[in-house]
Write a structure and sequence with these properties.
alpha+beta; three-stranded mixed sheet; 49% helix; globular
Length: 97
């Protein structure tokens, strides 16, 4: 994320759906990749990470609004979402690799 790496981990024994641990060693932990809401939980915790790294000052409500809005954007536009993701990945590829 920008200049900082944020680890993403799975811990099926945790009680919460997800958790973000702040700087200096940021990480996101989710409790399941099988649960129906996994994608939104991961997005929610990554938004907390972005907020922390860039000191945006989002409230929990702000994080939830962005989570639901971005999730809906991707869900309601699957073809475009895949194209955006592919374009972003290709833009970061090393042409000499």
């Amino acid at each position: 994320m920008g200049f900082l790496s944020v680890g993403v981990f799975l811990n099926e024994d945790m009680g919460d759906y997800g958790e973000y641990t702040a700087l200096p060693h940021p990480k996101v932990v989710v409790n399941s990749i099988e649960s129906p809401g996994f994608q939104l939980t991961l997005l929610h915790e990554l938004l907390h990470a972005i907020d922390d790294v860039y000191d945006i000052g989002l409230s929990e409500q702000g994080v939830r609004i962005l989570e639901q809005s971005l999730g809906a954007l991707v869900r309601d536009n699957p073809v475009h979402s895949l194209a955006w993701t592919k374009a972003l990945c290709e833009a970061n590829e090393d042409p000499d690799a």
